[in-house]
Amino acid sequence: MEKAEKYRLLDRQVAALLEGETDVIAKMANVAAVLHETFRFWWTGFYRVAPVGSVGEPVEPPSPRELVLGPFQGPVACMHIPFGKGVCGTAWKRNETVVVPDVEQFPGHIACSSASRSEIVVPVHGPDGAVTAVLDIDSDRLGTFDEEDRVWLEKIVTLL
Ligand code: SME
Description:
Radius of gyration: 15 Å
Strand content: 25-35%
Largest sheet: 6 strands, antiparallel
Strand order of the largest sheet: 3-2-1-6-5-4
Bound molecules: methionine sulfoxide
Structural class: alpha+beta
């Protein structure tokens, strides 16, 4: 099956799967699972924007924020990523999708796994338009992601 056909089916599947669900963690978990299973990526998951050191502690706004590991499929990954760091932090800072055909050519790439060769990171937006999370997908092959992935994944994350 062609990539476009897979995404078309996936888009409908995700919409059906998430219908009526309000818990964002549950939604992210199933989106990661369905993407990972469809394309057999190396790593598929979310990092959420959260106040630094917020685990279990109430934090007064405004406070510094970072990306914290969320629902994912694949090998263990780094749990905290600062604003502007790595591909994930860069996508958050720029507020745009970042496609990296070769991670070794991306300055500051955070190597959670040496098997990761290419990557795409797509910002997820809240109702006010602010970035609330990023979808991070890693491949163990070079040049896996292109414009087609960007367009479909940006559409899919709006369903969250
Ligand atoms: N490669 C990412 C870090 C997260 S792991 O790949 C899961 C980055 O540079 O942002």
